[in-house]
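It is worth pausing here to work through a concrete case rather than discussing structure prediction in the abstract. The textbook approach is simple: state the sequence, then state the predicted structure, then interpret. We follow exactly that order.
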Amino acid sequence: MAAIEALIFVSDEPLPVRVLVRILNEDKDSIETALEQLSVDYEERESGLQIRQIGGGWQMSTKTEFHEEVREFLKTKPSAKLSLASLETLAVIAYKQPVTVPEILEIRGVQSASSIKTLLDKRLIISRGRKDTVGKPMQYGTSRDFLIQFGLKDLSELPSIEDFEDLVQ
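Step two, the predicted structure:
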């Protein structure tokens, strides 16, 4: 477990299990068991850090409840925020992917070309090929960077549409 912890600590990106298996010459089940135990250990000792599965790998990070204190200490500004239009477009893509620009227009009711460009530039979305229909429009979906940025293990961790409907009622 100590070797796994050290490798996760020095990794710039979420570390996939397959890489740990290769480096440590251990079987996948042993690595996954150790990762789960390491994650529980951090949680049980009420650490300011956490080890969690995110974006297809494992990563060590500060717990969200301490982000403001860490930001103050580092004297950093909040990361660049997305406009409301870009957030709406990203939400449509996240929930309906793969989705085309005309389909996004149909859902949002406004053009989304500049939002698509912004999201592509920030690497939050990627092209998922072309739809087999008239004009062969480009389809978009979320990227691994999207999962990392929003702290998601996979898309199943997105809040359900019903959760949002409960908020507006």
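Step three, interpretation. The mean pLDDT is 89. The beta strands are 49-54, 57-62, 99-100, 125-130, 138-142.
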